[in-house]
Write a structure and sequence with these properties.
This protein has 111 residues and is mainly β. The protein has no helices and eleven strands. The strands form two sheets. Strands 2, 4, 5, 6, 9, 10 and 11 form a seven-stranded mixed sheet that branches. Strands 1-3-8-7 form a four-stranded antiparallel sheet, with no helix packed on it.
Length: 111
């Protein structure tokens, strides 16, 4: 079993920044962020491996940065130049094996 605890969401104006954190209960190789806006399907945002390899959705490339602190079993998502379209509940995801999800943290970007 893996527990994931997210934090860092909130309300920000367009063009602002937020940093999300996800603390895992143990070391995980592949950790990702997904998001789900109201009425839409959950979508991939970014992924990072334990060695630091990263992948991003095209919609966030150049604005979001995923990183991790392996000593703390924590992954971060730095979100800059936020847009109203980034408004969603953001979920941390771990591949352990098995798939685990955090409870989600709300990000709201006002125009």
């Amino acid at each position: 079993q893996v527990q994931l605890v997210e934090s860092g969401g909130g309300l920000v104006q367009a063009g602002g920044s937020l940093r999300l954190s996800c603390a895992a209960s143990r070391s995980i190789n592949i950790m990702s962020w997904y998001r789900q806006a109201p009425g839409k399907q959950r979508e991939f945002v970014a992924r990072i491996t334990s060695s630091g390899s990263t992948n991003y959705a095209n919609s966030v490339k150049g604005r979001f940065t995923i990183s991790r602190d392996n000593a703390k079993n924590t992954v971060y998502l730095q979100m800059n130049s936020l847009k109203p379209d980034d408004t969603a509940t953001y979920y941390c995801n771990a591949l352990a094996p098995g798939v685990y999800w955090g409870q989600g943290t709300q990000v709201t970007v006002s125009s």
